[in-house]
């Protein structure tokens, strides 16, 4: 016997925290939720599962758009044509209200619609008996514990508990009480980060299969559960259409600004549509200019044009090992003019008058030495301070 356990699809949910999304990447975001559902159905058919469990929050709201409803029902019909039943409950986001659905659920979709526990029984194509106990939200919250309503396993049927919730005010439970029921598998929903609470029996949060925020990066997809020779095995199958990734890009071999673009192209390679956060490291050779361009946002926008269309660079950060340079409210040109003044022999001699009178040091104060001192001073000032032209105008007014 094999079945898929999925939860928290959140169809209709938009991607959060994104600004200035590249036009070429917009279609990937618009199609991501639908394609995720298609990937789920494809997986169920390819794995020839006996049934599918949808453990709540299939939709992001309890009034799904008609477009999303139509697409969902068409995908459920594909499972119907493949002879695969679907057992579905409703969570705190898509809490059940019958009048919100404008299309008829296909005959293969078995719904749990009450806030009281029901048990559905059926037999697989291979003759194995299965019992599924579950409930649904009819309101945004359920504060009481519903576990007492779940029957204790009392037959040879493979017994599954399908439960959306976990903590107050969303149908709280404890793992110990789940185990007491004697079930063979607990199909949980509500928590978006994949978690295995127990392996004897399996008590599993599959997590959301498609991350919609930068925090939803730890995805496992859907769980393929297989019972063979009395043993239950579980493995994850990813179905996300768009992935969130964070990658460090080392600039250790970069010696000038143009080389940075090549370093990014070489180190960033994703074939799947990707929402990417790049963290630049080892950028000391590029100095304060790198920090400025990262902070201003200009470098992120230019790098976006260097990347393939299936990658959207939504954030660019810098691991800054350089100390922040103090700001001098003068033009760099004025500093150069002052240094030129010190190149005049009389001025330089007055500056080093005491040293010049030392008979041992005097022979060392050649014109070449003076020139080297001036150049070294200029370089030190340039590396140690920011000048007026190097910072945004609003900073100079602080």
Automatic annotation (TrEMBL):
Keywords carried by this UniProt record: Hydrolase
Descriptive protein name: Calcineurin-like phosphoesterase domain-containing protein
Lyase among keywords: no
GO molecular function annotation: hydrolase activity
PANTHER family per the UniProt record, alphabetical: COMPONENT OF ATP-DEPENDENT DSDNA EXONUCLEASE (PTHR30337), PHOSPHOESTERASE (PTHR30337:SF7)
InterPro entries: Calcineurin-like_PHP, DNA_Repair-Maintenance_Comp, Metallo-depent_PP-like, Mre11_N, Pesterase_YhaO
Keyword Hydrolase among UniProt keywords: yes
Domain of life the protein comes from: Bacteria
Residues annotated as domain Calcineurin-like phosphoesterase: 1-194
Pfam family, one: Metallophos
Native organism: Enterococcus pallens ATCC BAA-351
């Amino acid at each position: 016997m094999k079945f898929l356990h999925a939860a928290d699809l959140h169809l209709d949910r938009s991607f959060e925290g994104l600004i200035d999304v590249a036009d070429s990447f917009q279609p990937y975001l618009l199609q991501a939720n639908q394609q995720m559902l298609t990937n789920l159905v494809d997986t169920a058919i390819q794995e020839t599962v006996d049934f599918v469990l949808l453990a709540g929050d299939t939709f992001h709201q309890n009034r799904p758009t008609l477009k999303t409803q139509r697409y969902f029902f068409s995908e459920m019909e594909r499972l119907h044509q493949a002879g695969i039943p679907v057992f579905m409950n409703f969570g705190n986001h898509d809490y059940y209200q019958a009048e919100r659905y404008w299309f008829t659920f296909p005959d293969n979709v078995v719904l749990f619609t009450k806030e009281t526990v029901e048990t559905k029984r059926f037999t697989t194509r291979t003759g194995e008996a299965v019992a599924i106990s579950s409930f649904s939200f009819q309101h945004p919250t359920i504060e009481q514990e519903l576990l007492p309503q779940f029957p204790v396993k009392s037959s040879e049927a493979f017994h599954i508990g399908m439960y959306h919730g976990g903590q107050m005010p969303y149908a709280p439970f404890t793992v110990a009480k789940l185990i007491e029921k004697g079930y063979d598998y607990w199909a949980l929903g509500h928590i978006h980060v994949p978690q295995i609470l127990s392996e004897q029996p399996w008590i599993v949060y599959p997590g959301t299969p498609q991350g919609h925020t930068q925090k939803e990066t730890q995805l496992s997809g859907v769980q393929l559960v297989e019972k063979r020779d009395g043993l239950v095995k579980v493995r994850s199958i990813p179905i996300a259409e768009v992935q969130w990734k964070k990658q460090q890009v080392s600039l250790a071999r970069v010696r000038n600004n143009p080389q940075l673009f090549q370093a990014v192209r070489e180190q960033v390679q994703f074939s799947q549509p990707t929402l990417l956060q790049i963290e630049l490291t080892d950028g000391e050779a590029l100095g304060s200019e790198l920090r400025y361009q990262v902070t201003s946002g200009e470098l992120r926008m230019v790098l976006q044009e260097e990347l393939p269309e299936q990658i959207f660079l939504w954030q660019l950060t810098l691991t800054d090992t350089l100390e922040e340079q103090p700001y001098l409210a003068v033009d760099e040109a004025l500093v150069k003019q002052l240094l030129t003044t010190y190149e005049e022999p009389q001025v330089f001699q007055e500056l080093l008058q005491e040293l010049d009178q030392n008979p041992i040091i005097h022979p060392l104060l050649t014109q070449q030495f003076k020139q080297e001192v001036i150049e070294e001073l200029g370089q030190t000032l340039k590396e140690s301070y920011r000048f007026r032209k190097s910072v945004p105008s609003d900073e100079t007014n602080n």
